[in-house]
Design goal:
It contains 3 helices and 3 strands. By secondary structure, it is α+β, with helices and mostly antiparallel strands. It has one domain. Strands 1-2-3 form a 3-stranded antiparallel β-sheet. A hairpin with a 4-residue loop joins strand 1 and strand 2.
C-alpha cells in the first residue's frame, strides 16, 4: 500500500501559512501528557472542522484518520 493511499496528501500541510500568535498560544496550552489543550482546569480537544478553520485548510476526506 502506498503512503498517500493510507494517509492522504499530508505534505500539503507544509504549505499552510501559520499565524505566529496562534502557534505560540497552541504551544503554551498543549499538555503532552494528556495530548489535549488545557485551559485552567478544563481540557479541550479540537475536532477536524476546528483544525480546518485554524489552519485555513480544507480537509477533503473528513472520515480519514491519521495515525503517527
Amino acid at each position: 500500500m502506498c503512503f498517500r493511499d493510507k494517509y492522504g496528501n499530508v505534505a500539503q500541510l507544509l504549505f499552510v501559512k501559520m499565524n505566529d500568535t496562534l502557534l505560540k498560544a497552541l504551544v503554551h496550552f498543549w499538555d503532552p501528557t494528556y495530548r489535549c489543550f488545557m485551559f485552567n482546569e478544563m481540557d479541550m480537544v479540537p475536532i477536524i472542522e476546528e483544525y480546518s478553520t485554524l489552519l485555513h485548510h480544507d480537509f477533503k476526506d473528513l472520515l480519514r484518520i491519521y495515525w503517527k
